[in-house]
Amino acid sequence: MSKFAEVFGTEPDGVWRAPGRVNLIGEHTDYNDGLVLPIALPNQIQVTASARTDGVIGVATSGRPGVIEFALADVSPGSVKDWAAYPAGAAWVLREAGYDIGGANLLVDSDLPSGAGLSSSAALLCATAVALLGLRDIEVDPAEVARLAQRAENHYVGAPVGLMDQMASMCCTAGHALYFDIRAMSTDQIPFDPEAEGLSLLVVDVKAPHRHVDGEYAARRKSCEQAAAELGVPALRSVAFEDLDDALARLSGDVVRRRVRHVVTEIRRVEEAVALMRAGRLREVGPLFTASHASLRDDFEITVPELDVAVDTALAAGALGARMTGGGFGGCIIALVETSATASTLTAITEAFAAHSFTPPASLSATPSPGASRVS
To answer: Catalytic residue at 13?
Structure first.
């Protein structure tokens, strides 16, 4: 008997998946109408599902006992709490959008670390959405599913996240980074194959979990919106890199100036990274990673000691570049390293963490992987 049958008493109708992501560069630019460059990870959320006819959705996870049930007709923001708020949010947003998804039983499994800044929340929303749609053979454009998942996280869960995580989970392809222009709502697949150049993208979970719903993320977003209002532009994407000094001079307050400087220079770094990758000059992207981390540390102020130690140690061990990735205040770093130096770099970071009495870090594979799909 399958685990699904043990929990729900019937065999499933199918299995769907959605991956987590790491962002190569372009941090805190998505809600500023900017540019981002994520890849999807092999690590993923998997939803095993069967249809129900009573309009009720039951959700369970292999990591916790019991089944949480809620009537689809009654689901509304705040009506379902804890981890189940994410599948409930996916159901709510699909119903609000007019999709006849009906009831379902959903069993959630994951090999994606929660709280590591690898977008497990977006992956859970996307995996649930594609499962609920797939059960009813409803075809929806992946980018539209991403937008719906973002709406669910914003308005049901209450996290003011941008659209990057959901787009990465839905729209990435194997062997590529997703060049996503938020203002234009356009995407391009940029070849990203470090292995071909003898390189590896090392992802290190520093085990200092961040939480997007807390006040710090929202405060950064609010400061960007305040700056855009002061400058009379719809979003900071409208501030050209060449006009940055003039824009900074027009702003009130050093903190706001530093936030704007990060966003505008980070958007420029994404453009430069994409140009280098298109030209087959991946090794030259490393210094852009490092510059991004310095900006996030000094201007956006979202790093923590574990992230800074991991980046500094990776660079000292010979990494071509390293930076924190994700929302900040914990999570992961990425380091572009010679494949032959992957193990020694991780060892150096582990030893540095021990010297600082930090929790031992963990590492993940960062092979560029495909977006959400049906498994069986």
So the answer is: no
